[in-house]
Amino acid sequence: MSSGEVGVQPALRSWVSPGSSLSSRDPHIAGRAQQHPHRCQRAEMLLSTGMMKAFILFLGVGMTLGSLYTDPDSCRGRCDEPYSHEDECHCDADCRSRNSCCRDYPEHCREGEETTHRHTAEHFSHSHDAISDKELLHVSEQLYGADYNKAQPNDININPQHRADPDQTGLQEDLSPEPLYAYVNEKLFSKPTYASFIRLLDNYQRATGHEEEVTAEELQEQNIFLQEVMKTELMKKLYAFLHKKNRYGSEEEFLQDLKEMWFGLYSRGDGEKDSSGFEHVFSGEVKKGKVSGFHNWIRFYLLEKQGLVNYYSHNFDGPWDTYPDVLGLQFSWDGFYKEVGSAFIGCSPEFEFGIYTLCFIARPGRECHLSLGGHGVSIQTYTWTKSTYGHGKKYIATAYIISP
């Protein structure tokens, strides 16, 4: 498991927090002038040349880049968010009486902030831009309903076999003699989002500590995948929701940020740019002799078909009677073991990509409670904290379904 996954195994519907948060606050706008005095000098020069409007746009964009995600230890974007015992600090109206307010609660949520402190560089610091638990339940149902490319019941036949008890998941014993996938209709893989997704899976070295070399062809494959998913109604609904919440001003801005947060490289080792959110979550990695990440059903099926993945058992099977379903599972990948994995089964690439993106933006470092077809499910995401992009924005470290 990665550092973001260690010890996170609460029951799917118990909503028990893993008790961990990996996030840091963005610097305040007031501090930007002290940190960047050259910008003020540049402003005078631009004013004299009639370019102040362009400068203001540049400066505003630069300051907003670090303000996209709701930090667990900040009230930015969380005012009036319902109380949850999972959160390390709170931003609801009663937090003062509990002495549990985040330290910047007065700055973002006190009465009068709506009119007296609206800055263009703080798009979503106020209560109507916060993403509530109720809104997450609603938008996740919308995304679930818009997954038109998902597998139909006769497209996939899985054979879960042995259900492992909690004390069996660490035994590394193959308790299921047959493959997990008895049948998959591979015509699914000819759909544009599937085809472009699959082309990405062989672009990575699975062992951390080895620098990833990204070719021009691989960069183009990333662009094609993003373009294909953004054509889907599911991702358009996700963008519309985030746009309404002032996370993004345009679809192009959203697309560019998806590329950075998911495909931007960072180091899980000793400085080599050896990992990304996409590689970890969808393709899978091997770190310290264990499988890390690897939460995608398509990747699992393709490697199992090649004889490189050996399915051992499952510890959870979701309540859905259609796809997507959820499975918690144990398996070996070319000799490396995954003790507790989880994956959506039968969803389209855009569904998984969109759901994880929603939770990363709305609840980074915290459990993200969703509703899919009337059933509750929780997603855990973590931000990568050792490096950033775009003036303090965070890469995705991991994202996965919380399984028992």
TrEMBL record:
GO terms for cellular component: cytoplasm; extracellular region. Residues 71-115 form the SMB domain. SUPFAM superfamilies: EndoU-like, Somatomedin B domain. Residues 151-160 have a biased composition (Polar residues). It comes from the Eukaryota. Belongs to the ENDOU family. This is Uridylate-specific endoribonuclease. It comes from Coturnix japonica (Japanese quail). The lineage of its organism: Eukaryota, Metazoa, Chordata, Craniata, Vertebrata.
